[in-house]
Structure formats: structure tokens, C-alpha cells
Amino acid sequence: METREYDVVVIGGGPAGENAAQYAVEGVEVDGRAMSSAIIERELLGGECSYWACMPSKALLRPIAVADLTGDLDGVSTAHVAPKALLERRDYWVSHYDDAGQDTWADGAGIAVVRGAGRLVGERTIRVTSSTGDVEVVARRAVVIATGSEPVVPPMYADALPWGSRDATGVVEVPDRLVVVGGGVVACEAAIWMSALGSDVTLVVRDQRLLGRTEPFAGEAVLAGLRERGITVHLGTEVSDVRRESPEATGIGKVHGGTVTLSTTAGEIVADELLLSIGRTPRLDDLGLDSVGLTADDVKAGRLPEWLHAIGDASGGPPLTHWGKHQARVIGARIAAAAAGEVAWEPDREAPVPQVVFSDPEVASVGMTEAEARDAGHDVVVSRVPTSSAAGTGLLRDTVVGDSQIVVDASTHLLLGATFVGVEAGELVHAATVAIVGDVPVHVLRHAVASYPTASELWLRLLEELPPSFRTPPPA
Ligand SMILES: Cc1cc2nc3c(=O)[nH]c(=O)nc-3n(C[C@H](O)[C@H](O)[C@H](O)COP(=O)(O)OP(=O)(O)OC[C@H]3O[C@@H](n4cnc5c(N)ncnc54)[C@H](O)[C@@H]3O)c2cc1C
Ligand SMILES: NC(=O)c1ccc[n+]([C@@H]2O[C@H](COP(=O)([O-])OP(=O)(O)OC[C@H]3O[C@@H](n4cnc5c(N)ncnc54)[C@H](O)[C@@H]3O)[C@@H](O)[C@H]2O)c1
């Protein structure tokens, strides 16, 4: 069998893996020789994010948001979604499911791409299996696991061949009636584009609220937004049985057989397709972890030998592209520094994780919710204002919905968390991320002047709503 050797070998070419392969070796020379890296990829280079997750979902949601906006702005004619053109836009943004562009990028960055499924067979050694035969790939210095995650499908659902997120983002046949199980991020985003494409959408949510990890007021605003679109949402509803007439694996985005019937605590729900979106789990099976004496739990807990690293969804951390890419930069710098006999500089604590949900209204958050901050023992002060309450936000639409909130530590005046709901939420949250990472107390943040009339002036409103004692440093 052919053996190839590189300094760094990354299993999985999603956004996390690609960044790790680049950062671990870029500009690094050891013993007068440039460091080398390889990515092992069994599907499309670019990963879930590029073809079946972030890119297609956002490509579908943006025109819908723009059409909605024109319906809510005097002085402009209302635009309407054109389903065929919307799917063509999706196809453009996923490069028609062709990864030639990513191949060109890897080539330009000097990263080797080994096609096939990678499996550890010993320390720093990976067997890559493909239709053209097996190759052994050896890492001189480090192996990075970046194999992503896959949707959770409990046995009760498996025989019905439900849609997963790949089917929703890759939709080809629009079912007349779509039932979505789950009330998280995928459900709240996919319900919007499936409804805009013409499906009659029903959400079945086990919890009493949507987007359970965010502030309750955010989930309430998204619930109202979905219902306003004519989407039915059953909260606090358990599914006890799933039946489907003639299930058939017809392919991604096509209807997978006959009528689906769900028995639920809200009654029987009949639909033409079922989208199951109840979370994802790290993809660590079939990776040969046992060959090096490890289990999936070791990977998720970070109990790894010094030559092995895990990043992105596979690491069990927050399953978000930007977080995986951040981990890749940190791990990449560690590998590069170690090769040079140095230790990479890192801040003394982990960065807060921001997330933007591209629902309607949009929800963006970073750091702790109020409840999480109190549970962690902080004495907190909270400021919440309507997102419409700055001139800059008010001007953006005729109807600005949602609230925005900051959570502040009462003794240090440091920001612990922030949540924005509504227009420009995804852009407004970055200032909060910067303030948290930079330890900027709110009495200093007041002096970061936002231009009038921009959405960022909402920060002024949030800071003004804090008690006056938060305008000067806390007593020593
Ligand atoms: C519908 C949807 C929308 C999303 N939208 C957003 C968003 O807007 N913003 C955001 O931040 N996040 C979003 N996410 C999450 C985001 O997609 C993931 O966090 C991200 O893709 C994780 O990147 P990764 O590199 O860790 O893994 P992946 O992107 O899953 O890539 C892993 C790669 O590893 C390959 N692989 C796996 N096993 C092997 C093996 N044994 N050998 C070789 N190759 C292997 C796979 O083929 C894949 O290409 C979304 C997720 C979904 C489902
Ligand atoms: N804009 C974005 O950043 C974005 C968009 C889509 C997905 N994602 C990522 O993808 C991940 C997966 O998304 P998701 O929506 O599948 O998961 P999620 O964790 O966001 O939501 C899962 C939902 O399913 C429910 N649930 C869990 N187990 C259940 C069960 N057995 N029966 C019924 N309901 C159950 C939960 O209560 C929750 O409502 C997210 O964690 C997110 O990080 C991010």
C-alpha cells in the first residue's frame, strides 16, 4: 500500500478542518523546510457548512427577508419570493454541489487533499479508503479530527426515513404539508424557507418554548413571527409514534415516500414529509479511535494524547462554523509553535461564543443569558429596551419588533452577555463580543460613540437604561 507523509494531517475538510490545515503550517519553516499538511475528505471539500448547512440556508433566507422588508417599508413596491429562482440561487451558492473551487483553494494554499474515508490505525497513522484503493497517511507531528457532526435520529423515527437538514437545505420537491419536529435553530430557520416555497408547515416542539438556549423573550418573538407567517406551532408536545406509507430513499431533498402520520400529545398530525431537527451529535464512529486506546467520550472531553486534536462539531463544542474555525486557529497556532519549539500565545480564558439565528425576527446572542449568569453566581443588572428604540433601528423598517438586552455584572461592571432580537441583530452583537473579550466595563463602553442614526446607537439606549451608578467605575 502507498504511504504518504505530511507534518499535519486533518481528517475532515469542513470549515474547521480547512482552517486547521492552513493555520498549522502557513509560513512555518522547521529545519529549513516548509511544514506540510493534508486534508482527508470523503465527500465534498468544504463540508456540511458549504453545501448542506450554512451557505444554502442563508442563500434561501436572504431573498425571503428582503421580500418581507419591502412589504414593511413605505415608498417601495412589495417584492415576492420566486420559488424557482430561489432554488437556483441556492444552487449557485452551493456551487452546484461541486467542490472544484475548494480544490483550487487547497492547491493554492499548498495543502494536499487525499480523497476517501480516513480511519486511525495507530499513532499518527491513518488508513484512507476510497474506490481507487487504500492509502496510508502518516503525520510526522499532529493529527486533527475535524469530522463534523450528524443529525440525531432516534429509532422511533428511523423507519419513516424523515428529512434531515440536508433535505431541507437541498429541497428539490416541496411537500404540500411539512411537519417539523424540534424547536431549535434548524426548525426555526427551515420553517421560514419551506413556508415561503409553498409548504404548509407545522412545528411540533417538545419544550414550552422555541430556541431553548436563548433568552425567553427571543423565543417568544420568533414564535410570534412564525405564527404571523401562517406556520402552526405546537409547544410542549411529545411525539409517541411515527408511521409512514411506503417509505422510500428517493434522494436528498425529494419526498421520501407516502403520507406521514405522527401521534402526538396535541393529537394526530398528518403530513407529506417530516423534517426531524432535534440536534446533532459529533461524528466519531468508524474513526478507529480504539486503535489508539481512545473512545468518543475521550474526544469530547478533550482527553487526547499530545499528537491528536479535535476541533469543530466533532469536538463536541458548540456546533457553529465560526466556533470551529476559531478552534482551528487556536489549535493550528499550537501545532505550528510546537514545531518551532515554542508555545503559542493564548488569552487566559476561552472566548465567548456568539450565535446568530437567521429567523424572523433575527436573534443574536453572546455570552451568558440572565439565568445562566445568576446560576453562575453573578450579581447581575439587566438592561432591556425595545429594538425599535434608537432612531437608527427605527428607520430600517416600518414595524420594528423585538427587544434587546445586556446582562452586566453588578460588582465589576463587565458585560456577561447580550441578546439582540430584530433588525440588524446579527451585526449589533459583535460589539458585545468585543466588549466581553476586551473586558470593557460598561462605564467605559458608554464612551464608544456610535454614529447617528445607525443601528449601533441602540447600544446608547441599552447603556442609558442601566442605573446611573454604572456611568462611573464601581467603588474600589
Ligand atoms: C441547516 C444548518 C444550518 C447551519 N447554519 C449555520 C450558520 O448559519 N452559522 C453557523 O455558524 N453554523 C451553522 N450551522 C452549523 C455548521 O454547519 C457546523 O457547525 C459546521 O459545518 C461544522 O464544521 P466542521 O468543519 O466541524 O464540520 P463539517 O462542516 O460537518 O465538515 C466535516 C467534514 O468531514 C468529512 N468527514 C467526516 N468523517 C470523515 C472521515 N472519516 N474521513 C474523511 N472525511 C470525513 C465530512 O465529509 C465533512 O466534509 C448550520 C448547521 C445546519 C445543519
Ligand atoms: N444560524 C445558525 O447558527 C445555525 C443554523 C442551523 C443550525 N445550527 C447549528 O446546528 C445545530 C443543530 O440544530 P438543531 O435545530 O437540530 O438542534 P438544536 O439543539 O438547536 O435544537 C434541538 C431541538 O430539538 C428538541 N429535541 C431534542 N431532542 C428531542 C426529542 N427526542 N424529541 C423531540 N424534540 C427534541 C430540543 O428541545 C430543541 O428544541 C445547532 O445546535 C446549531 O448550533 C446553527
TrEMBL record:
Cofactor: FAD
InterPro entries: Class-I_Pyr_Nuc-Dis_Oxidored, FAD/NAD-bd_sf, FAD/NAD-binding_dom, FAD/NAD-linked_Rdtase_dimer_sf, Pyr_nuc-diS_OxRdtase, Pyr_nucl-diS_OxRdtase_dimer
One Gene Ontology biological process: 2-oxoglutarate metabolic process
Binding site for FAD: K58, G118, T147, G148, S149, D313
Cofactor binding, per record: Binds 1 FAD per subunit.
Binding site for NAD(+): G182, G183, G184, V185, V186, A187, C188, E189, G279
Span of domain FAD/NAD(P)-binding: 6-299
Any Pfam family hit: Pyr_redox_dim
Every Pyridine nucleotide-disulphide oxidoreductase dimerisation domain range: 353-458
GO molecular function: dihydrolipoyl dehydrogenase (NADH) activity; flavin adenine dinucleotide binding
Keywords on record: FAD, Flavoprotein, NAD, Nucleotide-binding
Entry's family note: Belongs to the class-I pyridine nucleotide-disulfide oxidoreductase family.
Name of this chain's protein: NAD(P)/FAD-dependent oxidoreductase
Source species of the chain: Nocardioides glacieisoli
